[in-house]
Specification:
heterodimer; A: about 450 residues; alpha/beta; six-stranded parallel beta sheet; 17 helices; globular; B: alpha/beta; five-stranded parallel beta sheet; disordered C terminus; ChlB/BchB/BchZ (chain A)
Chain lengths: ~450, ~500
């Protein structure tokens, strides 16, 4: 049974977390014509924006209610209203995703009430634009919680409630935040190859995939259609990827009766098999030849790759679901988890992480626990720990700002697992140490009196 | 909070600020930060500004007293360089949680955090930054810092610039105030000499100050403190013993320069290391100020000799770019031309300036811009992204020089872009830096990708399918092939 170790330090050293509103904004960025709005000071938005840009290398729509000291003390409803109206008239979004911040939540206002007033008072001006609220103070949670709250809020606000006529081919998919653009594209292809029609919420593959639109777009340039969110209740089944997406899936089920199937991870042969079997069962179609081929390729990658994984000690720092995904992948390849660090203790998935303990903490903890590991696995900020420890770093999650193309890296199903195996094996091969007599000396770890230890001269 | 308000009023009143001199008393009191429009605002907060100014002090532990976002979303994001200590790159935050807020544990947690840092890292000083939430819940960081300083026998410096008090620029100034109140003048150097200077507002981005420092070394001038780029705490603490100050990024630390003059009689001037003539002028002014403060006047002659030698080399290097860059059109979108001498050097090799933002320019600046620009219409206060995109799409410039914020407007319009703001990866200071800037402009404009990304796919252009694909072997052949293909010049956008 894994032990969950709470944080006991007063200082977070080299934070692992990105903030909860950032996670919510990321989810809103997966909706077509969306504009996320932070209800906080201009700095809250500016920091998140810069971080998004560093990761995606894209212009990111993200605005602020620009709370100043006076507004914070008097209350921010006016700023919220002004911001929404300004965004509506300037950018004509389909959706404005309001994310509260620590600043406004510390004062503690009735944001839902404020928004209800604004929607009512400004119904005419706001026609055609959904305004959704996610309560995401920075002082709790991290990306995972923020992302899940935003999706829950969208379903709660937009999806038409009540049992509806089901379309037998339509599948709702609620992916966790840690799925990349490439993952979403791949999921869609896979589902479509069974003749099914996926509706993916949120769908970052349409909005954060780095294309060159032929005009300037001030909102997101693609993503899930707001109308498709409204019609989610007509799906025959909902597929959920990541434990943190259970809440939105349960809400969808409660509202519309659409049943869901949970995949805590889509990495590894078994998870992929279960996913493919489910699609085959829902569609009644046989597994296409191409999918079988991919599976065989993964089998081969397992065969070729396992030499590099066996006995390796892996130190991972990631958000709970991604930690679970990676840890099960590595353990499934014969490695052991030497250190597992995560952001918050709010997820049930932590109990299933195949490690002795999971530390709630930061990259300072990763550096302390990961000494002696063969590989560090975390986001780009882990580069300092990797440098200090002299251990290679595999970059995963968010932010990745010192490598290009992280959004196009495939990490799920047969093909993504195959790619992961190759990536890790290649890191190990690139960092192999040449054998030295010192490293292999059978007496190197034995304690012995000074006069018996081999002198430098004796080696000649 | 009231002392903070007084401080803010004080920095708004800055008499040395060029913009301020043009205002009446009432306008000055209102301050220089314009009220932001909710839903249409951009830019960082006061905390951001304070951290930018102080964090490059390399051996200090910078502790941010805040919920996660303030530090967690922003650390390790600037390219300032250190020649030694790396502690400044380690991120420390109290990561205030809901429980801390509700139970009022903020101050206790902060104190404990200071202790942990002191014990684990033994830095020469700890800087503690307040933020919106910890200010809102009333944590008294000045009192905590004072107690911690006494208890741990270590300078613990409160930086009181919570985000919601204003803009990044205000934060820059409040950071300067923190140095004045708590750091500068707290240590006495044992080696003060007549050739000691301070440089203020130099961030050593991509190590660019190291392109300049050797020039001072050659003249026997010692940089006592460069604040903040590659600074050590003790250098800053003994900065009051320098004989002259050069202020580089004037809006950020002008209050610091003026108050150091007032307090310790250190004369200062505003200068720049961007561009050839500005670099020379900076060297000249420093030597002059040092002589005025008692240095041997022979340094003036040596300075002129060095300038003559270095300028000749730089101009010769730049001249090599003239055939490649003559007639190229540059759009400057920087929020204000920071160095006229860069513009001067670009024009000297035949580059045209076709537009510039004058958002932060003084009336004097605007007059100069009018003379430079061929078309006054291209002087703009601030251009909406959509308009800027339209202008670039019409190919009205060959390259845009700007900060990261507008990067993608240029790139998505398929126009070359060069970063000239703080996130950039190239050093542009001094004589060699100017040559490097021009080299980067040349590389950006002449990169072979532009032709590729602008060409439409062959299937959208029936005639093209029958043509030979453009060969990359000969430049003329390529241009001709392209002309045939797209019916326009290679430099234009390919449209069928």
């Amino acid at each position: 049974m894994v032990r969950i170790l709470p944080q006991t330090k007063a200082t977070a050293v080299n934070p692992l977390k990105s903030s909860q509103p950032l996670g919510a904004a990321l989810a809103f960025l997966g909706i077509g014509g969306a504009m996320p709005l932070f209800h906080g000071s201009q700095g809250c938005t500016s920091f998140a924006l810069v971080l998004f840009v560093r990761h995606f290398k894209e212009a990111i729509p993200l605005q602020t209610t620009a709370m100043d000291e006076v507004a914070t003390i008097l209350g921010g409803a006016d700023h919220l209203e002004e911001a929404i109206l300004n965004l509506k008239s300037r950018t004509k979004p389909k959706l404005i995703g309001v994310c509260t911040t620590a600043l406004t939540e510390t004062r503690g206002e009735d944001f839902a009430g404020d928004l209800a007033n604004i929607r009512q008072k400004r119904a005419e001006e706001l026609a055609g634009t959904e305004v959704v609220l996610a309560n995401t103070p920075d002082f709790e949670g991290a990306i995972e919680e923020g992302w899940a709250k935003a999706v829950t809020a969208m379903i709660g606000r937009i999806t038409r409630p009540g049992e509806q006529a089901r379309q037998s081919k339509k599948i709702a998919i609620l992916p966790g935040w840690n799925l990349t653009v490439a993952d979403i594209e791949h999921l869609r292809d896979m589902v479509e190859s069974f003749g099914l029609e996926p509706v993916i919420v949120p769908d970052v593959s349409g909005s954060l995939d780095g294309t060159v639109p032929d005009r300037w777009v001030t909102t997101t340039y693609g993503g899930t259609n707001v109308e498709d969110i409204r019609e989610l209740g007509t799906a025959v089944r909902c597929i959920v990827i990541g434990e943190h997406m259970r809440r939105p899936a349960e809400l969808l089920h409660r509202l519309t009766g659409v049943p869901y199937a949970m995949f805590q991870s889509l990495a590894g042969l078994k998870a992929a098999d279960r996913f493919v079997s489910l699609l085959s069962a829902i569609s009644g179609a046989p597994v296409p030849a191409e999918v079988r081929r991919r599976r065989a390729q993964l089998q081969d990658a397992l065969l070729d790759g396992h030499f590099h994984f066996g006995g390796k000690k892996i130190a991972i720092a990631a958000e709970p679901d991604q930690l679970y995904q990676l840890a099960t992948f590595f353990v499934g390849m014969g490695s052991e988890i030497a250190a597992a660090v995560t952001t918050t203790n709010m997820s049930k998935i932590l109990e299933k992480v195949p490690a002795d303990s999971v530390q709630i903490g930061d990259l300072g903890d990763l550096e302390a626990l990961g000494a002696g590991a063969d590989l560090l696995v975390t986001h780009s900020h882990g580069r300092q720990a990797a440098q200090h420890l002299g251990i290679p770093l595999m970059r995963v999650g968010f932010p990745i700002f010192d490598r290009l193309g992280s959004q196009h890296k495939l990490t799920v199903l047969y093909q993504g697992t195959r790619d992961l195996i190759f990536e890790v094996a290649n890191i190990f091969q690139a960092n192999r140490h040449a054998p030295t007599p010192e490293a292999l000396d059978p007496f190197r770890h034995r304690e012995m009196p000074d006069e018996l230890s081999s002198s430098p001269l004796a080696r000649l | 909070m009231s002392s903070l308000n007084a401080k803010i009023q004080d920095v708004f009143n800055e008499p040395a600020c060029e913009n301020n001199r043009g205002k009446d008393a009432k306008a000055r009191k209102k301050g220089c930060s314009k009220p932001l429009t909710p839903g249409a605002a951009a830019g960082g907060c006061a905390f951001d500004g304070a951290k930018i100014v102080l964090q490059p002090i390399t051996d200090v532990a910078h502790l941010v007293h805040a919920p996660l976002a303030c530090e967690g979303n922003s650390w390790d994001n600037r390219g300032t360089a250190s020649s030694g200590p790396t502690l400044w790159r380690t991120s420390f935050t109290t990561d205030v949680t809901e429980l801390d807020v509700m139970m009022g544990q903020g101050e206790r947690k902060l104190f404990k955090a200071i202790r942990e840092i002191k014990e684990a890292y033994a830095p020469p000083a700890i800087f503690v930054y307040s933020t919106c939430v910890t200010a809102l819940i009333g944590d008294d960081i000045e009192a905590v810092c004072k107690r911690a300083a006494e208890k741990f026998d270590l300078p613990v410096v409160p930086v009181n610039a919570p985000g919601f008090v204003g803009s990044k620029n205000l934060g820059n100034k409040l950071a300067g105030e923190a140095l004045l109140d708590h750091v500068i003048g707290t240590a006495e150097p044992d080696d003060a000499g007549p050739y000691d200077i301070n440089i203020l507002g130099e961030f050593n981005l991509s190590g660019e100050f190291w392109l300049v420092k050797p020039l001072f070394d050659r003249l026997g001038i010692r940089v006592r403190a460069s604040i903040p780029g590659d600074a050590r705490y003790l250098d800053v603490a003994s900065a009051h013993r320098a004989r002259a100050t050069m202020i580089v990024c004037s809006t950020a630390l002008i209050n610091l320069a003026r108050k150091m003059e007032q307090r310790w009689d250190i004369p200062f001037f505003e200068g720049s290391f961007y561009g050839i003539t500005d670099t020379s002028e900076a060297l000249r002014q420093i030597s002059r100020l040092l002589v005025k403060k008692g240095a041997d006047p022979e340094i003036l002659g040596r300075t002129e000799a060095l300038i003559a030698e270095e300028e000749a080399i730089a101009w010769k290097k730049l001249a090599a770019y003239r055939p490649r860059l003559e007639g190229k059109r540059v759009l400057l979108n920087t929020g204000g031309v920071k160095s006229w001498s860069v513009v001067h050097a670009l024009m000297e090799i035949g580059i045209e300036i076709v537009g510039t933002s004058v958002k932060k320019s003084t009336p004097e600046d605007k007059e100069r811009i009018k003379k430079i620009l061929k078309d006054e219409n291209h002087m703009f206060e601030a251009m909406a992204p959509r308009e800027l995109y339209a202008m670039l799409s019409k190919h009205e410039a060959d390259i845009m020089l700007s900060g990261g914020r507008t990067q993608f407007i240029a790139l998505k319009a398929k126009v070359p872009w060069l970063d000239i703001n703080q996130e950039r990866h190239q050093p542009y200071a001094g004589y060699d830096g100017m040559v490097e800037l021009v080299r980067q402009i040349d590389l950006a404009i002449h990169n072979p990708i532009w032709r590729q990304v602008r060409e439409p796919p062959p299937w959208e252009c029936r005639t093209a399918v029958e043509d030979e694909p453009p060969s990359s072997k000969s430049k003329t052949a390529t241009v001709q092939g392209f002309k045939k293909f797209a019916g326009t010049t290679a430099d234009d956008f390919g449209e069928c």
